[in-house]
Amino acid sequence: MEHLEQFRQEVRDWLDENCPPSMRTPLVPEEEVWGGRNAEYVNPESKLWLERMGEKGWTAPNLPKEYGGGGLDRDQTKVLHQELFRIKARPALNSFGIWMLAPCIIEFGSEEQKREHLPKIIKGEIRWCQGYSEPGSGSDLASLSTKAEDMGDHYLVNGQKVWTSYADKADWIFALVRTGPKEPKHNGISFLLIDMATEGVSTKPITLISGKSPFCETFFDNVKAPKENLVGVENSGWTIAKKLLQHERNFISNFGLAGGGTGSGADVVNIAKKYLGEANGQIANSAQRENITLHKMKEHAFGLTLQRSGDEGAKASAASSMFKYYGTEHNKDRYELMIAAMGNKGLGWTNEGFSDDEQAITKAWLRTKANSIEGGTSEVQLNVISRRVLDLPN
Amino acid sequence: MKLILTEEQQFLKDTAQSFARDKTPVTHFRELRDNENSQCWDESVWKEMVELGWSGILVPEQFGGSEFGMAGISVIMQELGKTLTPSPILSTSVLGVSAINMLGSDEQKENYLPKIVAGELTTALAIDEGNHHDPFAIDATAVLDGDEWVLNGKKVFVVDGASADSILLVARTSGKSGESNGISVFVANKDSAGLDITKISTADSRNYANIEMSDLKLDQNALLGEQDLAGETLEKILDLGRIAISAEMLGNTEEAFEVTVNYLKERKQFGVQIGSFQALQHRAAKMFCEIELTKSAVIAAMHAADENSNELERLSSLAKFQAGETLHLVSNEAIQMHGGIGVTDEYDIGFYLKRARVVEQIFGTSEFHQARYADISGF
Fold it and tell me: Which of A145, A309, B93, B259 is least crowded, fewest Cβ atoms below 10 Å from its Cβ?
């Protein structure tokens, strides 16, 4: 404990010295940092903050030091997060590489792959995207058909991925490909890393019901991927894929609860008081006040459950399905309550007649509809809970 | 505040689990009901609980208790809830002890607490007067006449009121119904003249009474603590009661759910286990999520009580709300998923439904606590 307090002091001192002033102000979307070869920094201090945090390994505090991570244990990581939160520091780096890929490379990758990829992920030098879903393979992901043929020293990749977030900005993609076309569907999949700059890779953005989106379609047309970029054993990629999905689910459910990821992060109670008015300090419409209270109580209990899970030290497991299911459904509910409270002010599309904040909430409301689809639908999560937690029969 | 149990609390939970499994499985409750046991709990079972120290968990050490706190007694109640074990633990060891300890003078504590620890005294808290829990809607009056208090009024649905040796009577000494100020608490022996206790018969076959006070005369020592000023403390005592009963409800829920999931794995129709049907699986998975949320709300509330957190009121309401909502859902689904056998008296699952609706009411329904939470939070 004393040791931990000493660590806290070290963190404080370091942050005092190294966190640039503008990085302690609320984040504006155009200054979000995702790193990568083609990153552009509107604010030069964002770049400085990333470099300093990356050097320290604190963009990935719990990854091993030898691969560029922070090498912190669970308690130290918590302290770091508390201290970052205390000074309201912006995230130095948003990264699918850190959130999803790095834990899988640690668990399944070769020593060469760890040395090659982890430091670049942690420093934000290479930006990754995820190639999982295909037009014909959504919830039934294992039916995927993008094929990778063994050509001796490389695989020849042909096919299409869809819902690849930021594929148009990413440097590399981690993709599920079919290497064993004759095997049963789960046993013919491999986990392959592909450089997006390779000839034959192309991307096309997708417009959503909420408007512009980071999602893309990604096409592979006779793409050559060196064999050394296969993670784990050929045809055993499904195990890695499932593990990665757990990390993704945890990430989405935590993000959803924080109100981030889907835009405004506005508080539903404040919104309701503003647009419905107040009566004696209370939300003036009693029916909506009840609905909102119910929502806030569930949020409180869900937040306590995330905390309890952390306190119990539970590993990423089937419980991640519960968090993904509950967190995303809850987030959808929040935005439904918000636009309901805003009345006709919650239905704007462009700035003719609506403020920026109002439009943002409307767009965010539409965007939340994908929360319970992406990363495994709510129905798939409920299947996982039924089978893996409750042990109900197939 | 970490949302886990200490070793000591885990030990108490394990002890209570073995106790409930070995001494008071659901058949124990069924026997009490079938034999129309008048107090609805078993003296010898209570004696064993007393010997384990459960009567004194909230009692300060100087009066012979263990001070294991709300977390200690809550985990015991959770385990007892699993097998629907009836006992005066809520009315005596939580409510009686808290009221005497938080309101009473040193002399009163010395007089009552060691007796409770020793199992020589059981109590009941008589507060509600109407069809719904409303702690400050007190019309019962207490007037000082010379050196005696004279009490008049009625109390309803008093938990363990039909068996308690002493009744803690909440009465108004000033002000009007709905006000927190002007409320006082008195202790009366069950045999006092002017105190009419009538056992009522309820769906859960437990012990409740309606009480009439007609010129009930009590001496000055009967007033717990100070005149007029019990309101705020009473709210805190009720919060402890709400947390304890939420823990019991969590136990009810966990057991009803486990029995139901097991049934889904056993029961075959159309040649397969009915648990293979997605229509049932998804409902079971949703119940699982709500139970997890309930566990978190209950553990947060009991720790908040022990740490004297200023979040106690909000967390107590959250726990009672979430425990009530979840037990309501699970008790209904348990019956439906059992099908025909679920509505027979021979099968135990119906007991959980009958118990559920009663405990949902005690010390405030989910709606009561939703409204309270909204007010405290400034919504």
Answer: A145
Please state the domain count of chain A: 3
Question: So what's the architecture of B7-121 in CATH?
Answer: Orthogonal Bundle (1.10)
**ipTM (interface predicted TM):** 0.95
Range of the domain at A149: 128-235
Q: Tell me, what CATH number does A307's domain have?
A: 1.20.140.10
Per-residue pLDDT reduced to its tens digit, B91-107: 999 999 999 999 999 99
Question: What confidence tens digit (pLDDT) does each residue in B69-95 have?
Answer: 999 999 999 999 999 999 999 999 999
pLDDT value, residue A259? 38
Q: Is B10 on the interface with A (CB under 8 A)?
A: no
* 8 A C-beta contact, residue A121 and residue A98: yes
What is the interface size between A and B, counted as CB pairs within 8 Å? Answer: 109
User: Measured between CB atoms, which of A290, A301, A325 is closest to B296?
Assistant: A301
Backbone angles phi, psi at A358, to 5 degrees: -65, -45
Q: Does domain B232-377 fall into CATH 1.20.140.10?
A: yes
Please judge whether B282 and A304 are an interchain contact, meaning their C-beta atoms are less than 8 angstroms apart: no
Are A393 and B322 a contacting pair at CB < 8 A? no
Which tokens hold the place of B153? Answer: 């009024």
Residues of B in contact with A302 (CB under 8 A): 293
pLDDT at A251 exceeding the cut of 80: no
The answer to whether A308 faces chain B, any CB pair under 8 Å, is yes
